[in-house]
Design a protein that fits this description.
The protein is of the alpha/beta class. Helices cover 36% and strands 22% of the residues. The chain has four domains: 127 residues, Methylthiotransferase, N-terminal domain (Rossmann fold), CATH 3.40.50; 109 residues, Transcription Regulator spoIIAA (2-Layer Sandwich), CATH 3.30.750; 114 residues, Transcription Regulator spoIIAA, CATH 3.30.750.200; 57 residues, OB fold (Dihydrolipoamide Acetyltransferase, E2P) (Beta Barrel), CATH 2.40.50.140. The structure holds iron/sulfur cluster. The site of iron/sulfur cluster has 10 residues, from helix 6.
């Protein structure tokens, strides 16, 4: 770097955990090249915005954010760089809509960031404005050899695979993150040992479709077992699997390994077979329910959560009723329920019409949220009167006199700090005396 001063970088991350994990990689790569990071956006020479393209409101949020940066850029020199799925999906359409952007980099092109940012900063020093793009998707990039720069905490996210080959018709991921590739298990285990040595007590393995993890003779069941055997790690979680390929070996690993959490996030997306087929999910409702039964009979205390989309193209009232029935039958512990939002380049955008009125989508979401809230409350009340083990995380959101942590099943528990049990990263037992749809309330057993 031949710049007059050492550039200070501020990074802002939107969207999913995969983006959080990518931001840690980006920090690591830029620090290696002499960039310095600051929490204070006002002092930054470079602002990186790591973006999400999964829904239209994510786009709107990011454009609103970029317009704040426009004001800042009018006041002083500033390099603005957009990373992530929105940069990859919209490409130059993004810089046409928001000309303040200097650099665009997609999820497979972060190794080029140090040189792109240096070029933009050098141009700026000379009073010039030079745009830089790095948007190639790779079949091989797994950022091997780069140890993420993590903030300290209880949980470390470790990406085990990148991309997705499933091409669900509503989903933009195969176009923004490219084809599926798995990391070498040796480097994943090295990262798990490093996280443990640096005080992390929980690891969450990340991938768009972790069940497809393959590296030589390693599959995901073998990988999660090996990660759970890492000394000093108390819990291992993962997200997300696809219901079409949930192997028995993985269900057994969850059931038998004491450190693999009994929590499975199993995206349903819809309960109508017709809609599931249009979505390209490759399973029918009955197959999904059979998998739920198989999981529950092998892992009786499992906590099951899901994702559901309301108002996908041509979804009728009858289709929606099928989804409502599935939600009642599956008895999820909780669910993320969203309106369908058409994404550029997807199969659904090319082949189907986004024809369910927004108001109908909204009503269906509200009805399903209501149904799920009732089920979640009933399921959470099962814990009343029981002692549960909790991994302590931090202060409770609503009161600094209370602490919060998570059960093995990832359910939030809140208790009074005056009980003395408040050391983040430790395991503690709490007696549950009350429950809402969002929280369990604990006290000393
Ligand atoms: S499995 Fe389907 S929904 Fe999940 S990332 Fe891949 S294409 Fe998207």
């Amino acid at each position: 770097m031949i710049l007059k001063t050492i550039p200070q970088v501020h990074i802002e991350t939107f969207g999913c955990q995969m983006n959080e994990s990518d931001s840690e990689l980006v920090r690591s790569m830029l620090k290696r090249e002499g960039f310095v990071f600051t929490e204070d956006r006002e002092r930054a020479d470079v602002v990186l915005v790591n973006t999400c393209a999964i829904r239209e409101n994510a786009h709107n949020k990011i454009y609103a954010h970029l317009s704040e940066l426009r004001t800042l850029k009018k006041q002083r020199p500033l390099v603005v760089c957009v990373l992530g799925c929105m940069a990859q999906n919209l490409k130059s359409a993004m810089t046409e809509k928001e000309p303040l952007i200097d650099v665009l980099a997609g999820p497979d092109a972060y190794r080029q960031l140090p040189s792109l940012l240096t070029t933009a900063l050098e141009a700026q020093e000379q009073g010039l404005f030079q745009k830089g793009f790095a948007l190639d998707l790779s079949e091989y990039e797994t950022y091997e050899g780069i140890m993420p720069d993590r903030d300290s905490g209880v949980n470390a996210w470790i990406t085990v695979m990148r991309g997705c080959d499933n091409f669900c018709s509503f989903c933009v991921v195969p176009y923004t993150r490219g084809r599926e590739r798995s990391r070498d298990p040796r480097s994943i285990l090295h990262e798990a040992r490093d996280a443990s040595a640096r005080g992390f007590r929980q690891i969450t393995l990340l991938g768009q479709n972790v069940n497809s993890y393959r590296h030589e003779d390693w599959d995901f069941a073998r990988l999660i077992t090996a990660v759970a055997d890492t000394a000093g790690i108390d819990r291992v979680r993962f997200t997300s699997p696809h219901p079409k390929d949930f192997p028995v070996a993985l269900i057994k690993a969850i059931a038998t390994h004491p450190k693999v959490c009994k929590h499975i996030h199993l995206p349903l997306q819809a309960g109508s077979d017709r809609i599931l087929e249009l979505m390209g999910r490759t399973y029918a409702g009955a197959e999904y329910l059979a998998l739920v039964d198989r999981i529950r009979s092998t892992v009786p205390d499992v906590v099951l959560t899901t994702d559901i989309i309301c108002g996908f193209c041509s979804e009728s009232d009858e289709d929606f009723q099928s989804t409502s029935r599935m939600v009642e039958q599956a008895q999820f512990d909780s669910a993320y329920i969203f309106k369908y939002s058409e994404r550029k380049h997807t199969i659904a955008a090319r082949k189907y019409t986004d024809d369910v009125p927004d108001q109908v989508k909204g009503m269906r979401v509200a009805r399903l949220v209501e149904t799920q809230r009732r089920i979640t409350l009933e399921r959470n009340r099962r814990y009343i009167g029981k002692d549960v083990e909790i991994l302590v995380e931090r202060d409770a959101t609503r009161s600094s006199t209370q602490a919060m942590g998570k059960t093995d099943g990832n359910i939030t528990v809140v208790w009074d700090k005056s009980t003395g049990d408040f050391k983040p990263g430790t395991l503690t037992m709490k007696h549950i005396f009350d429950a809402s749809a969002a929280t369990l309330y604990g006290e000393c057993p």
